[in-house]
Amino acid sequence: MNTILVCSSTSNGNTRQVADALAEVLDARILSPAQATPTELAQADRIGFGSGIYWLAFAPELITCVNSLPDMSGRDAFVFATSGFPQPPFRPYLRNFTKLLTDKGFRATGTFSCRGLDTMGPFKLLGGVNKAHPTIDDLSAAQAFGRNMVSKAP
Ligand SMILES: Cc1cc2nc3c(=O)[nH]c(=O)nc-3n(C[C@H](O)[C@H](O)[C@H](O)COP(=O)(O)O)c2cc1C
Fold first, then answer.
1. Which one, 19, 30, 41, 67, has least CB within 10 Å?
2. CA 93/CA 101 separation, integer angstroms
3. How far apart are CA 57 and CA 41, in angstroms?
């Protein structure tokens, strides 16, 4: 499957590390949301969308990118994210973002998330929380997620 990853990683490059790990196993190109025009994405059968989590949501530019797409029926999509903390039950941002994708006609094939170094506001004074995340284990887990998707692809 021709795979493209659309990645926004503006804080510490954490999500970009996950995108790089996924790209290896999926043989994928990585684009920024600005590069991921409808014409570019029309070339892919499978698209992974990922960003850091900011204020309990995906990066606004990633959401804008998805909103600008035409009907994407017949294509697979998955979601990846890094965040300072686990997703809280009162704001299921992974599910909400997945719904944006299925509303565009994509077949959703899964989500991957892990912790990333968080230097937001006061955490910066402490040198950040989740130092050294994503870890090697986090990146291996991302690759296992990618391989699993490949094995289940139609
Ligand atoms: C402005 C800002 C807001 C953030 N808001 C959240 C949040 O709501 N929940 C959370 O778990 N992490 C939050 N974080 C932490 C980031 O999600 C985390 O550091 C992530 O790994 C950043 O990814 P990136 O380096 O790819 O940009 C925030 C970080 C910043 C800088």
1. 67
2. 13
3. 23
Q: What is the pTM of this model?
A: 0.97
pLDDT tens, residue by residue, 24-42 = 999 999 999 999 999 999 9
- Tell me the domain boundaries of the chain: 3-152
Is the pLDDT at 154 greater than 80? The verdict is no
Kindly list the protein residues whose Cβ atom lies closer than 6 A to any atom of ligand 1: 9-16, 52-56, 82-85, 116-118, 120
Q: Quote the pLDDT of residue 127.
A: 86
Q: Which CATH number fits domain 3-152: 3.30.565.10, 3.30.10.20, 3.40.50.360, 3.30.1490.110?
A: 3.40.50.360
